[in-house]
Amino acid sequence: MASSLTKFDTGHEDLIHDISYDFYGKRLVTCSSDQRIKVWEFIERPDASVWELNDAWKAHDASILKAIWARPEYGQVIASCSFDRQVKIWEEQTVEPRNSQKRWAERFRLVESRGAVLDIAFAPTQNSLRLATCSSDGIVRIYEALEPTNLAQWSQMEEFEISSANIHRPIDADSGYCIDWCPNRTAAPMMVVGLGKEIGARIFKHDGHNRWIPSEFLPGHTQEVHDISWAPSMARSYQLIATASKDNLVRIYKLTEQHLPLQQQQQQQQQRGRVPSSPAGTPTQSGAASKSYHIELIASFDDHKAEVWRVEWNITGTILSSSGDDGKLRLWTTGYDGKWRQMASITANTQVPSAS
Fold this sequence. Notes:
Layout: E1 16-21, E2 27-32, E3 36-43, E4 50-58, E5 64-69, E6 77-82, E7 87-92, E8 104-110, E9 117-122, E10 130-135, E11 139-147, E12 150-161, E13 177-181, E14 190-195, E15 201-206, E16 212-218, E17 225-230, E18 239-245, E19 250-258, H1 262-272, E20 292-301, E21 308-313, E22 319-324, E23 329-334, E24 340-346, E25 351-352
Antiparallel strand pairs: 1-2, 2-3, 3-4, 5-6, 6-7, 7-8, 9-10, 10-11, 11-12, 13-14, 14-15, 15-16, 17-18, 18-19, 19-20, 21-22, 22-23, 23-24, 24-25
GO cellular component, one term: Seh1-associated complex
GO molecular function, one term: structural molecule activity
Region (Disordered): 261-289
């Protein structure tokens, strides 16, 4: 099947920080240092397929670092975050004309961050609309829409510090934190967090009692992790996490569940610096927090030869995309022998399959 690239001019007046497809791949949101968000729709025509502008508007008072879509069951909903320390929730108003700058209405602002909001991620959970935010103040905050059909009411449910050593670092917009939820069904929620200037990434697990516990560390990085992505498992017996790093490498980690004795699990948690306790002060074990994973670095690629800024899995977790300062989007997949390889390298004008 032939493949093609569709190039279009976004019309942004400054650097584009992020682009994001909706669940079906028919819509695209772009955000920029020009403080504007633009929503695009893919229109298929007999002569040519094009991306048409749905609307564009000034969304923040500083550079917008990320814009993402909520799952489609909650309607047409976008969240955006910025250097202005705010996260905003936007909802499409189909009664408003396209390109009227009124098509997308602001429903709520999350303003608890004391520094730039560097990353955001909607939780994969069903029956509740949750959003995690990651700020330069070193705190991950988790919010929930009190009524998913009414996006004007959100509440902060939980928060945790990224540093497991309780180090209070100065608020630095260049701290480089990033987050992603585990998209797979587990006993309790999990997420993976890029540790910024502490170098590396760590899994955090919910203990079932409103606490997030620092857990397994993803080793091997020599500089900051710019982006992180947890793969859908699609019935695999193991899980995969990919990282994009300032040290020019794309890494893929394999997580295999271990069944350790309870005492050994508690010892590991004590070594990490925090053990969840009940109100009586006794250690508790619940859900995913009681499970341990063996972490294995199974692939490391330096093909970008430059800083890597983004990694993302496809919906089945079988293809990984990465992009970096070399101006290329690279696609990675595994062969029958279980080894990961580059399957394509995409530039603005051409697609050149890699040599096998």
